[in-house]
Amino acid sequence: MTARTYTHPSVLAGIAAGASWADPEMDPTRIDWAVRRAVAAIPFPLVDGRPVNPAAPTGIRYGRNLLGHWGEQQCADAVVTASKHGFPWLVMVERADGHGWALPGGYVDPGETALAAAVRELAEETGLLADPDRHPHEVMPARVVPDPRASDEAWMVTTPVRFDLGICTGPLPTVTGSDDARRAAWLPAVDYQSLTGYLDTCYGGTVFAAHRDLLAALLDH
Known about the structure:
Blueprint: E1 5-7, H1 9-16, H2 33-38, E2 46-47, E3 50-51, E4 62-65, E5 71-84, E6 87-95, E7 101-102, E8 105-107, H3 114-126, E9 137-139, E10 143-144, E11 154-167, E12 181-188, H4 192-203, H5 212-219
Parallel strand pairs: 1-4, 5-11
Antiparallel strand pairs: 2-3, 5-6, 5-8, 6-7, 6-12, 9-11, 10-11
């Protein structure tokens, strides 16, 4: 079977436009992988000077598919819960790109910690402010994201950060979709099935494919 090679035209357009999210280098063997591997959240191998996704195969052996970078892109996701009426609620956002409902999150900027990135992305996408000094939180282990946009040579690694806002006797804190989010909402999160059922019934939505395993593991523990 021939190894598939593919990079989406939008990635090439991003490179041509000088977008910050797209590596301008077209040949990954010319990248200094010693530097990138030294700061990787999850170790990954090189084969013939090319990075290999720890979760390969993805179906695309060479190229970047829909992702702009080569190798690992570090992200952080905010898992924000609060309790009301005796059961937990979870903040989620509807992605503006049409890929479904996801945890608020995004890229970790250079020099930024996963905790700081999760706080920033949460504020940017929902308007909700989580204060690590006031709200109990947990920085969880990094994990490879099963992102449908990934390839064997370009992938996402996320560090989930949990925040517990405690028991709400009044309304849940207001959340409003902005930045990369079409809308934001508090969803009942007793377990993964109740979450997906509520999304389908109330919003006609589904969970972003990249977050299904993560949310199922968190909610059905």
